[in-house]
Every structure is written in C-alpha cells, then in structure tokens.
Amino acid sequence: MTDKIPNGTTTEMETFLPKDESAINGNVTTYKVTKDNDFEAANAEIDPFKTRVLDHPVTNCDTLTHLLKASLGTGILSMPAAFKASGLVLGIFATIVVSIICTHCAYILVASAHELYKRSGKPAMSFAEVAEQSCLRGPKWARKFGWTARQVVLWGIFVTYFATCSCYTVIIAKNFNFVAEHYLGPGSTNLRATIAMLLVPLILLAFVPNLKYLAPVSMVANACMAIGLGITFYYLVNELPPITERPAVASITTLPICISVVIFAIEAIGVVMPLENNMSTPRSFVGLCGVLNQGMSFVTLVYIILGFFGYLRFGNETKDSITHNLPPDAILAQAVNILVGIAVFCTYGLQFYVCLDIAWTQMKDKFVKRETLANYVLRSVLVTVSVLIAVAVPAIVPFVGLIGAFCFSILGLMVPVMIEVLTFWDKGFGRFNWKIVKNVIIVLTGVLALIFGSKSAIQDIIGLF
C-alpha cells in the first residue's frame, strides 16, 4: 500500500520531469512536454561543432595551404597535354566545368556531413562514416547498404592514396636522377637504389604528428611548386607563336581525354574530410567564400594558365609532362626537376596522412596502453611497405593511374552524389527535380573519366611491357 503525497510536496520523480506549463489538479499533476524539453525533438537544433574537441585545431589558413598542396600536385604538369587534346578555347571551358563539378562534389560531401552531424549527434566523421550514415539515416531501402558503403569508401580511399604514396617515391627518385645523370653521365644512377635511399627521410616526414604541424611542410611544397611553375612559365612565354596557329577546338573525339586528365589532376576528395575534421571553424570550409571555393578557384586559374601557354608554346610537340619539353642542359630546367622533386616529397606527408588516419582508426582501440608507440610503429611500417613496393616495381606509375581512374571517378564524383541523394531524400530534389538532372551530369562525367582514364592507363601499361 502506497502513502498519499500531499499537494505542494515535490517528489523525487518530479525533479526529473519538465515543469513548463504544468497543471496541478488535486493529486494529479499534468506535464506538458515541449520541444524545449524533448531531447529527440530538439536534437536537430544541437550544434555538433560545439562538442568537437581537438588537441591540435587547424586554422583556415593552414587548411587552405593543405588544400592547395593536395590539388596542386604533379598532375598540373600534364595540363598542356590536356589542352592539346581539346584546343585552346575548349580547354579553358572544359577545365572550368570539370573544376566546378569536382568542387561541387567536395562541397556536397561536406554539406551532407554537416547535416548528418546534427542527426547523429557526432561532432566529426570520416568520408567512410558519412557514406555509412547517409545510408542508415536515409530511406529504408538504403539502410541495409550502410556497412557496404563504409567499406567500399574506406578501402577505396586507402588503396588509392597508398598506391599514390608508392608512386610519389618513384617520381621523386626520377626527378633527382634526371639531374644527377646530366652531370654523372647516362646510366650512372640506379632508380631502385635512389628509391631505397628515400626510406629514412620519408619515415622522418611521416613522424610529423598531425596536420597542424604538417602545415609548414605543405607551405614548403607550395613554395617549391610555385618557383618550379614560375621557371616553367618563363620558358613557356619565350618565343610564343601567334594564337591563330593553335586550334581553338582540337577535336570533340579527344575531349574526354582532356576531361579525364583534368579530373585526375585536380581531384583531392580523400583529404576533404580529414581537413574539415581538424578545422577549428569547420563551417568556414564551405560557403560562397569558404576555404574550399577559395582554394579551388586559385587552383583552376593556375591550371588554365599553365595548360593554355604550355600548349600555345609547344603545340603538337607537347609532352605528357611539360617539364619534358624544357631544355635538359639548362640550369633553370634542371632546377625545375629538383624543385618538383622536393614538392612531391613534401606532398607525400599529406597523402600519407590519409592512409594513416584510416589504418590507425581501425586498430587504435587495441593499443590503449601504448598508443603513441603503436602509432609511430604503424607509421614506420606503412612508409616502409610503400617504399618496398616502389623498389620492387619501379614501373608502378601506370598501375597507379589505372587505380586512380577507378577510384577517383567513383569516389570523387559518384559517391558524393549518392551521399547527397540519400541524406536529403526526405527533403526532395528541388523544383523540377533539378538536383536529379545535376547529379546525372556528374555521374556521366565520372563514367567518361572512368572509361578514358582506364584506357589511357592500360595503354601505358601495354607500352611499358
């Protein structure tokens, strides 16, 4: 038998119940539950960024530096070849359109992530987690694909960027050997030996603890690439022929080659979420004047300038890499190879961070007691394996191109579209379903990049063997 509680007496249970607009009628108390005191209803208004705790937050300036380094890679040296496949005028428009598409895909990935932060209550997610959550919190038919989406993105990104790390060691060694052989004589260097000599310096670079302290390294890479491009541009503007000597539109049949080259040169989808997750002000990544748009606008401008003048200067003699058109005996041309080698070496750290982030996330729970030691052992192992692969297969570059054709076209273009569709499924696709039309155009672009990028890589592999 329970005792009656007099009116006006506060019970223990009442201290945990909402008091807003409650009414007491005799011994019965009626409680009105509103959105202000209902956690699930108010969850959508929670600011997930206020709960984000970072040991080493990255500023907008540092994030922009990393983004520029990720996008201004060795692919920029192939831009004149892209213009050769499209023509001077068509190349400009093709580069702008492809850049807008790639930037938009990165934008919708981050925008979808911000929406999913609110729904899940998580302050940060990786690319793979965003893919998984978009399925789990999307339409019912997609929820069973959550785990599969996560694994496809996770390991697709890992394989692509780890293969890129191996490819970078080959590029660094080739650039240094190119200059060394000019002075020591042809055949005086051994590519495998040069790659092996890079092991210790690359391990030391991989020991940089996080993106905050990696920012100065990216600045060095940007500086070296800027000087190298400046010297290259000096050679390009000398003895320029009239613009009328180059076609405005080369051939529509070779336009897809231009599109695929630009996509693989400018694409950096794997670093987008790691950069956003480490920002002190993540909302600044997107927006009209956000870090993403600022960085990609500058990158697009540089790509157009180098591609336009490179093709204008050399015409049909334009090589796959514009540095191969420079006079090999000139000191400045040799300096370009050294500067590009240093820039690629510094870029290795940023590409490696993507692989490290994925691998460490999978295993850090098993090394709680010696977390720091295990982390640096993992760094050493990953670098060593990437270098050993390059030593074993110095001709890895065409194979990396084939991997990139698959992964960047799918992960960089098609997957962000899928994530956006699933995340905002309940909100519709805009007036006249314009988002569906937009997404179809992006997917078709990805298919073109997949087909022609794979074709080009396979031709290189056949030519190699």
Describe this structure in words.
- With 465 residues, the protein is mainly alpha-helical.
- It contains 16 helices and two strands.
- A two-stranded antiparallel sheet has the order 1-2.
- Helix 2 (60-71) packs across helix 9 and helix 2 runs parallel beside helix 12.
- The longest helix is centred in the middle third of the chain and has 39 residues, at 146-184.
Helix/strand layout:
Layout: E1 23-25, E2 28-30, H1 39-42, H2 60-71, H3 79-86, H4 88-120, H5 127-136, H6 146-184, H7 191-197, H8 199-206, H9 211-237, H10 255-266, H11 269-277, H12 291-314, H13 331-363, H14 371-392, H15 397-423, H16 434-464
Antiparallel strand pairs: 1-2
Helix pairs in contact: 2-9, 2-11, 2-12, 3-4, 3-10, 3-12, 4-5, 4-10, 4-11, 4-12, 4-15, 5-6, 5-15, 6-7, 6-13, 6-14, 6-15, 7-14, 8-14, 9-12, 9-13, 10-16, 13-14, 15-16
Shape: globular
Mean of residue pLDDT values: 85
Distance between the termini: 91 Å
Number of helices: 16
Largest sheet features: 2 strands, antiparallel
H/E element sequence: EEHHHHHHHHHHHHHHHH
> How many strand elements?
2
Query: How big a fraction of the residues is strand?
Result: under 5%
Strands side by side in the biggest sheet: 1-2
Give the helix/strand class.
mainly alpha
**Which runs of at least 5 residues are low in confidence (pLDDT < 50)?**
1-5, 10-24, 35-41
Helix content: 55-70%
Rg calculated over all Cα atoms = 27 Å
